[in-house]
Queue: 2 jobs
Job 1
Amino acid sequence: MLHTSPNEARMRHVLLLATGGIAVYKAVEVMRGLQKAGTDVRVVMTADACNMVGTATFEALSGHPVATSLYDYPDSSIPHIDLSAWADVAVVVPATANCIAKMAQGLADDVVSTTLLACEKPIVIAASMNTRMWNNPATRANVATLVSRGVHFVYPVCGALACGDTGAGKLADVSTIVDATLCVLAQATTEVPLEGKTVVITAGPTHEALDPVRYISNASSGKMGYALARAARNAGARVVLISGPVTREIPWGVNVIPVTSAAQMYDVTMAEFSQADAAILTAAVADYTPAHPADHKLKKAFEKLNQIDLVQTKDILASVSKQAQGRVVIGFAAETNNLLEHARLKLKQKGCTMIVANDVSCPDSSFGSDTNRVALVTSNNVEQLPTMSKDEVATHIVDKLVQLMSKDDDAAHMVDTFVQLMSEATE
Ligand code: CTP
């Protein structure tokens, strides 16, 4: 048994295993990110990892001894068994080609590989190595084997590598590794009511071209839509995020489809919704687009832009709702006055299941702010939520989505049962 403190027993446990890649110094930042999210982190390191960064920093910041061998661990006499049992999730940062190969083969010849072999909890692997090693068919086959066994990967990204080469192999961003680990942890320790469901989400602004270098747009940051994508993903959904032009980090495990204009967003959303179980449309879609965008850059000396002819764009929310056939569709109403009145009107006009109403003239609810104060408006209810972070608002909205979807399932089940009873009665 591992010696633990009472405080440790109340927290979620992340076991961070570090192997000897040059990116191992980033494991400290990953640990900090995981701690900031309220988890307790313990660290296991190979001898090569210790050669590169040493244990003192991990020990001081985690508040626990670091396991560096199968013996001599102060909190347990069998650390590979006790630490793998203590963990709610294990994350390997960085995972070298050798570590991945050993996992695929089931080898256990050091404290990291032995702990991983004993680990029955979900495992996240943040791989990092030279491009040629990453592309080697042996590594590809090992990765495929581990994926088929349910191991989660944070794949390396392209960039300049420590060896001087450029290509795929660079450790993914710290924030992506933290995001992936917290997602896998959430799915392992809480319910995943959206497992097996596909949710389509739109986010961000659209750009409506005047010419190849100028466009009309709005101040949407995409924060709310991206937060919703992470919340729905954590609840187990397969998420398709159709994103207008924003500079946001792509959430791990989410299928992001970038679009530019309202017309593109309409086409992609309609196509994706045909295969989906629900939709949450947060995008600040342009309501108008230039009727005659120029195919060349307009020159102010010769082609005066005194007036722009505009045509209305298609309403994606209304069109999706029309095709919904009982599926839950959630829209947003960004208003500056008469919030609830406008929200109720939008609910009716667009024909969706729920409108999330927010007053974008308030500083705690504006485009780009980190918080939001919203009301959830359905045909028979208004639920005002307090000011919360956009991540917390997203979790509430996803909880509400789950409720609304289960009501639909109940209704569908009642209809099925009724039809069944009727047909039995007439037989
Ligand atoms: N929306 C949409 N397609 C459009 C315009 C809006 O799907 N062409 C969606 C938004 O994603 C949001 C909801 O409709 O979920 C409301 O958007 P909002 O900008 O608040 O309202 P509008 O419909 O544009 O109406 P108005 O500008 O008159 O408030």
Job 2
Amino acid sequence: MTRTILILNGPNLNLLGTRQPEVYGPTTLNDVEELCQAKAKQLNVEIEFAQSNHEGVLIDLLHAARGKHAGVILNAGAYTHTSVALMDAISSIMLPVIELHLSNIHAREAFRQTSYISKVCVGQICGFGASGYPLAMQALTDYLGEPA
Ligand code: DQA
């Protein structure tokens, strides 16, 4: 059976392409999804690509990933820096989660340099713009190893 990965995007990422392009680049979320679909073919995995502006919906999608996906790539947007609930959801689902950001959060405002989710994720990729998504897919697939 083909392995599947959830790629989950948080608040305001639906506005990519027009939102602060000097920080987040010109790529739209549709472009990002296309990049991910191309990488999925190369890796021989399937993806579910989702976005929500709502913390509870993101948590529901993480819960629903159990038994369905082999792992998760999560750009939690600003909830990265605020959400104990998302951190708890990640701890609860027993799936490897990679934290992803387009921008280098460590080189930005002090409040962005704290991530509630880093400690419960396998690792973090940030600062590579849209290229970070296929990088994270490669990293997650490598982490998971050969399917049983
Ligand atoms: C972001 C970084 C966050 O600090 C910010 O709130 C976002 C996007 C990124 O992809 O660089 O919404 O997660």
